[in-house]
Amino acid sequence: MSRWRPDARQRLQQAALDLFAEQGFAETTVPAIAARAGLTTRTFFRHFADKREVLFADDAEASVLVAQLMAGAPAAAEPLTIIREGLRALAENRFEGRKAALRHRRELVRSDAGLQERDLRKRAALAEAIRDGFLARGLGAARAALLAETSVTLVYVSVAEWLDSDDDRKLDDIVGEMLAALRAEFG
Amino acid sequence: MSRWRPDARQRLQQAALDLFAEQGFAETTVPAIAARAGLTTRTFFRHFADKREVLFADDAEASVLVAQLMAGAPAAAEPLTIIREGLRALAENRFEGRKAALRHRRELVRSDAGLQERDLRKRAALAEAIRDGFLARGLGAARAALLAETSVTLVYVSVAEWLDSDDDRKLDDIVGEMLAALRAEFG
Question: With CB atoms 3.0 to 4.6 Å apart as the test, which of A46, A133, B131, B165 could cross-link to A70 if both were Cys?
Fold first, then answer.
């Protein structure tokens, strides 16, 4: 009966992260992840292409979230306003309250060349989603690319600072600091 | 006698690019590249780890160039000045005058998932070289990362615009335009 429970995806993610932590990423198999979640291997593959993908599911969802936010922004909104609001939503929906899990995920990604590569690809895909959003809003190619790449830089640099720090600054406050730093350096 | 000529590296690069253009990247073998250059396969492997690496040799050299430039900049130089001078040197030494070859290289990279991945890794390595340069100059981790990622964004967005355009703007002029655009958006 458990295989039909609607939270299969989250259970698989949690089981995978637990096993990666307990026995290492390389040693963890898909059947072991499915068994820990009380689900079948087949169910696993309905949700994820492979065990690596478990670690990047949130990134794929981030690209979708970004595309929705950009399409829903008022026609007259300035790019910087869209970026600021988008980063706020991303911080609140995808990051805040998950610092320990995301620190652990970062360790895992750093430990494996294949995971690092996939991380770079997901980063490029996020930049592409933002660029496409600006193109769809009528911006020129170079401007859309510049805004998209800079947005992704703000996300990555802010998340790194947030994961590195032990104070209780919120991620969105750090994004604000980084935006101010960007202004101070290049403005 | 030809195998001892000092320009083996450049000859191998040219032979590889010619063959990639004539018969495609996937169809071109290392022995064929070496033969076209009048050199042995062994000589090829003294210069490049594999045929992919031929396309990224310049990127690796760019990271070295960047590290040298940053180490050689005056102690009192502002980060933005170092970035501006570094981008100028990079544009002049690695890009200007090679638009046709670089356009062709871009097509090749776009055509192959493995090449795209390596391109992302080289981009990350360039950001890391710049970040390390700023860390060595005593900047904090977040500031060094923000400056490095933004520098790489400026390089990539400017090169894309330069390769896309058929006018005779110099790459360094486009870098200046992008820097002004960054100021206008975020300043």
Answer: A133
Confidence (pLDDT) at A7: 87
Query: Which two three-digit tokens encode residue B129?
Result: 């070289």
What is each CA distance from A140 to A22, A69, B152, in whole angstroms?
49, 19, 20
End-to-end Cα distance, chain B: 59
Distance from CA of A35 to the nearest CA of B (A): 33
Q: What is the ipTM of this complex?
A: 0.87
Is the CB of residue B150 less than 8 Å from the CB of residue A153?
Answer: yes
The lowest-confidence range among A23-27, B59-63, B123-127 is B59-63
- CA gap B159, A170 in Å, rounded: 36
Whether A93 has a pLDDT exceeding 90, the answer reads no
B122 CB-contact burial (10 Å; exposed 0-12 / middle 13-18 / buried 19+): middle
The pLDDT assigned to A1 comes to 43
Handedness of CA B26, B32, B34, B37 (dihedral sign): negative
What is the structure's pLDDT at B1?
A: 43
- At B110, list the tokens: 């776009």
CA distances from A98 to A15, A158, B66, B67 (A): 16, 15, 36, 36
- pLDDT tens digits, B128-187: 999 999 999 999 999 999 999 999 999 999 999 999 999 999 999 999 999 999 999 988
Nearest to B117 among A117, A182, A187 (CB): A117
Domains of chain A and CATH, by start: 1-48 (1.10.10.60), 57-186 (1.10.357.10)
What is the rounded average pLDDT for all residues in chain A?
Answer: 91
- Residue for token digits 């995978």? A16
Mutate to test the interface with B, among A83, A130, A150, A183 (most CBs of B within 10 A): A150
pLDDT of A187 reads 80
Distances (CA, A) of B50 to A58, B47, B111, B151: 34, 9, 18, 29
Nearest-by-Cβ selection for A120 from B124, B161, B179: B124
